[in-house]
Automatic annotation (TrEMBL):
Nucleus among keywords: no
Superkingdom as given in the UniProt entry: Bacteria
Organism: Actinoplanes lobatus
Name used for this protein in its record: Sugar kinase
Keywords attached to this entry: Kinase, Transferase
Family: Belongs to the ROK (NagC/XylR) family.
A Pfam cross-reference name: MarR_2
Residues in HTH marR-type domain copies: 21-69
C-alpha cells in the first residue's frame, strides 16, 4: 500500500518555522551534543521532519555541524550522524568594562574564550573607553574574522544598565550616566550589540553553559562582587529586570559591623564593605601586595600569604551574610557567587558557605545550593560574551 504523506510530515519552509522551535533545536544541540536528530526530536517534542529542516538551516548558517566521528556503529540502514554546535565557523565578541580596565575577548558558541585582551583605561570617560574597545574589536576581527564569522557583540558592566535600550543609565564608580553604549559600539563596529549588567550577564552564562545549568534555568540568584556589587535573579529561565531595568541593586544594603565609608555618604554599605577597592587598599596598607590589583591579592593568597588569605576569607564571610539574606528572600534552586576568593582560593568558598548556613533560616544544603562561578579564570570575558550568546541561542534565525 502506498503511504500517503501527511501535511504534518513535511518540513516547514524556512519562513514558517517558529523561532521558538529553531531555538529549541539549537539549545538541545548545545545541551546534549553530539546528538542524533531523532534524539533532538524527542527532547524538543518536534516532528522528525521539522527537526531535519531546522538542522539543515542551522548547518547552512554555521551554527551546527555533523559529527560523523561520534557515530558509535552504523547498525542497519543509514547511520544517524549526530549534530554538535559548530565551534569553528562562528563566534561572538565579549566585552567587559571594569573600573580599571576593559576586557575584550573572542568566544566560540560553547563560550570558550579563544582570545582575550585586558587593556587599562587611558581615560575613563565613555567616549575614550568605547573608542579603545572598538579599536580592540577591530584588531581581533582583522586577525580572526576571515576564519570565523562574528555574530554579534555583548557587553557587561556594573551599575544600572538598561539592556532593553542598550544604555548604561548610571555607573557611579566610573562616573558614567546615560551612556548609549549599544548604539555607540554598533556604529563603530557594525555589529549587533547588546548590553547588560554584570550579574545578569553571568546568570545568562550559567543558564547556557554552567555546571548547574539545569538548576539555574529553574530558579537562581547570582551575586557579582568586584569594584561594583550587584545581583540578578531568575525563575523559569527568565531573568527579572524590572520595569526600569534596575532589579538587583544591592550595593547599598547595610552590613553589620562595617565602618567603611561609602560613596553615597553612608557608612557600611555592602559595596563599600566587600568591593575590591577597599580590599586592595587594606592589602597595600598591610604590605601584602605591591600593585593595587585584586589579582595581586589572589596571587599572594595562592602563594601562601596568610594575610592575603585572611583578607579574602573575611570578605567571603561578609558576602556570605548578604547571600543568606538573598537565599531566604528568593529560596532559589541555586545561589551562584562570582567573587575572586570563592572562585579561586581554597577555604574561601567553605567560609562563605558556613556564613550562609549560620545566617540563613532556609535550611538549604549549602553544597548543592551555593556554588562559585563556573568560569573562575574567565569571569569577565564570559560575562560579556554571554550577553551576545544568549541572543544567538534565543533567536538563531536572526
Amino acid at each position: 500500500m502506498q503511504r500517503t504523506t501527511r501535511r504534518s510530515d513535511l518540513p516547514l519552509p524556512a519562513a514558517r518555522r517558529s523561532p521558538d522551535s529553531t531555538a529549541a533545536v539549537l539549545r538541545a544541540v548545545l545541551d546534549h551534543g553530539p546528538i542524533a536528530r531523532s534524539s533532538i526530536a524527542r527532547a524538543t517534542r518536534l516532528s522528525a521532519a521539522t527537526v531535519s529542516g531546522i538542522a539543515a538551516s542551522l548547518q547552512e548558517r554555521g551554527l551546527v555541524r555533523e559529527v560523523p566521528e561520534a557515530v558509535v556503529r552504523p547498525g542497519i540502514g543509514r547511520p544517524h550522524v549526530p549534530l554538535d554546535v559548530d565551534s569553528a565557523a562562528v563566534g561572538v565578541i565579549g566585552v567587559h568594562i571594569a573600573v580599571p580596565r576593559a576586557t575584550v575577548a573572542l568566544l566560540n558558541l560553547r563560550g570558550r574564550v579563544l582570545v582575550r585582551h585586558q587593556d587599562p583605561h587611558g581615560r575613563r570617560d565613555p567616549q575614550s573607553v568605547l573608542a579603545a574597545v572598538a579599536d580592540r574589536v577591530a584588531a581581533i576581527r582583522r586577525e580572526h574574522g576571515r576564519r570565523r564569522r562574528i555574530l554579534g557583540l555583548g557587553l557587561a558592566t556594573g551599575g544600572w544598565v538598561d539592556g532593553v535600550n542598550g544604555t548604561v543609565v548610571e555607573h557611579p564608580v566610573l562616573g558614567w550616566r546615560d551612556v548609549p553604549v549599544a548604539a555607540t559600539l554598533s556604529a563603530a563596529t557594525r555589529l549587533p550589540v547588546r548590553v547588560d549588567s554584570n550579574s545578569r550577564a553571568l546568570l545568562r552564562a550559567e543558564q547556557l553553559l554552567g555546571r548547574v545549568a539545569g538548576a539555574a534555568r529553574r530558579s537562581a540568584v547570582q551575586i557579582f562582587v568586584g569594584n561594583v556589587v550587584d545581583v540578578a535573579f531568575a525563575t523559569g529561565g527568565v531573568i527579572h529586570q524590572g520595569p526600569r531595568s534596575a532589579a538587583g541593586a544591592v550595593a547599598h544594603l547595610p552590613v553589620e559591623g562595617c565602618a567603611e565609608p561609602c560613596s553615597c555618604g553612608r557608612i557600611g554599605c555592602l559595596q563599600a564593605a566587600v568591593g575590591e577597592r577597599a580590599l586592595v587598599r587594606r592589602a597595600l596598607a598591610a604590605g601584602l601586595i605591591e600593585r593595587p590589583d585584586i589579582h595581586a591579592v589572589v596571587d599572594a593568597a595562592l602563594a601562601g600569604s596568610a594575610g592575603a588569605v585572611a583578607l579574602l576569607e573575611e570578605r567571603a564571610r561578609r558576602v556570605g551574610r548578604a547571600a543568606a539574606l538573598l537565599l531566604d528572600l528568593f529560596d532559589p534552586d541555586v545561589l551562584l557567587v562570582s567573587e575572586a576568593g570563592a572562585n579561586r582560593v581554597p577555604g574561601c568558598l567553605a567560609a562563605l558557605r558556613a556564613e550562609v548556613a549560620a545566617w540563613s533560616s532556609a535550611g538549604a544544603d549549602m553544597t548543592t545550593t551555593v556554588h562559585p562561578s563556573s568560569f573562575p579564570e574567565n569571569v569577565l570575558a564570559v560575562a560579556g560574551g554571554a550577553v551576545a550568546l544568549d541572543q544567538v541561542y534565543a533567536n538563531p534565525s536572526i
